[in-house]
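At your convenience, could you comment on the folded chain following this short note?
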Amino acid sequence: MTILYKVHNNLYVNLTNKCPCSCTFCLRQTMDHVGESDSLWLTREPEYEEIIADFANFNVDAFDELVFCGFGEPTERIDILLQVARYFKETYHKPIRINTNGLGNLVNCRDIAPDFKGLIDTVSISLNTPNADRYHELVRSRFGDQSFQAMLDFAKECTQYVPHVVMTTVDTTLSKEEESQCQAICDQLGVTYRIRPWES
């Protein structure tokens, strides 16, 4: 099964297939791989030792950063994520990013942002839309109506512990007015707004 895989010049970690959301636009509905990976569907969740051992199969020095992002929400396995991140940072001294839906506090029933201090360099959160009602339609979180505000609160809190916090939407999916509204939300939260290219 695919644990580590390359996308562009970054090394990605596929920790889990679990996710609290069932997004209408999720790539895993239409494909089983990303970048240069084989299938990202896991037969089981990899153990810490397996993840660490897989680094030996890559020339880690050639990559720009490590990214926790696979066919699931990486904060579903926050303890393993932090263990791997700590090992990677101490061993390879390279930047670490988490791509997340921003619902990690709800997933773990606790405040996880402080755990990122000194360890995670970038947290990239899927904003998707500036509209709470539309967000619920698109993301279909199992946490219901509290999800949108929880995601915004998480982004704001991460700014206290992480050097770079980014919120993203996908190019061509929003109007220019909606993109302006997203920019305003990010400005208010003190985070960077990024429009990602659509990947079909």
Observations:
- Strands lie at 4-7, 10-13, 66-68, 96-100, 122-126, 164-170, 192-196.
- Residues 78-92 form the longest helix (15 residues).
- The two ends are 23 Å apart (CA to CA).
- The longest strand covers residues 164-170.
